[in-house]
Amino acid sequence: MSKGKILVLAATGNVGAPLVAELLRKGERVKAASRKASPSLPAGAEPVRLDLSNPLSIAPALDDVDRIYAVSPAGYLDQLGLLKPVVEAAAPRKIKVVLQTAIGVDANNAIPFRQLELQLERSGTPFVILRPNWFSDNFATYWAGGVQAGEIRVPAGEGKTSFVDARDIAAAAAGALITDRHDGKAFVLTGSKAYGYAEAAVRLQKALARTIRYKSVDDHTFISETVASGLSQGYAELLAAIFHPVAEGWVAATTDAVELLSGAKPRSLEESIGDIAHRLQAQAA
Q1: CA 30, CA 39: separation in Å to the nearest integer?
Q2: Do 73 and 82 meet the contact criterion of CB atoms below 8 Å apart?
């Protein structure tokens, strides 16, 4: 396999940051892309300014690149509009694209993420698609306010989720980027065990040594509270919609994809809780 540089989009994000570090440890040359120059990149990473809302910034970032890790920034609804130009720029150069979407997007071709997958599959460039389950890290990001307030309020019912740690997604992405053995395939990434939100609350309560409960709320309540916490109306509605498969128990299954791609078993929620608790405590401080 050629040894050009790897362009990592959203390089300072929950997956991008550990992915950059993992690739550097493996001896790869990495171009770390973000909308702003980041002072927090590890030594050896080449910073690249890339604004997905400006397609003209894509081509210069592809110099000396033969592989791309592509992901839509959190909080955006138009994943197709943001990442389609990346696929279009990569295809004529036969730059391999490892695309991160989300679990279940293949259920309906009308879903923007699925449309993006289909475009990549038809582009003729090498690819791997990663569809992670809900992140365990969400308890320190999206649901952090509820955890800090002592009550996780989401419309998950009694459904269970095989939460996946962002570090395991990064390890799987690294595995997909450094070999061509998995090209042309799609993988669902999960943790090693499924948990209900009430079970997660119990584990967080123990780790943080304070009361944390789970309350299943209806969509309207969830959307209103999520918008009040700072997310857009559209994104809050999207989150509410994709909680329906959670409540129905459709995201409880586990896969061996993380281990297949990375060579290591994925973390369970228990194994992720310590890091999540540390991040929550840092936020509170």
Answers
A1: 15
A2: yes
Q: Answer whether 223's CB lies under 8 Å from 236's CB.
A: yes
**pTM as predicted:** 0.95
Q: What is the 3-state secondary structure (H, E, C) of 191-229?
A: CCCCEEHHHHHHHHHHHHCCCCEEEECCHHHHHHHHHHC
How does pLDDT run across 26-69, given as a tens digit for each residue? Answer: 999 999 999 876 668 889 999 999 999 898 999 999 999 999 99
Pairing of strands 195-196, 160-161: antiparallel
Helix (H) / strand (E) element for 177: namely helix 166-178
163-183 tens-digit pLDDT: 999 999 999 999 999 999 999
Rounded to whole angstroms, how far apart are CA atoms 155 and 158? 9
Burial class (CB in 10 A: 0-12, 13-18, 19+), 117: buried
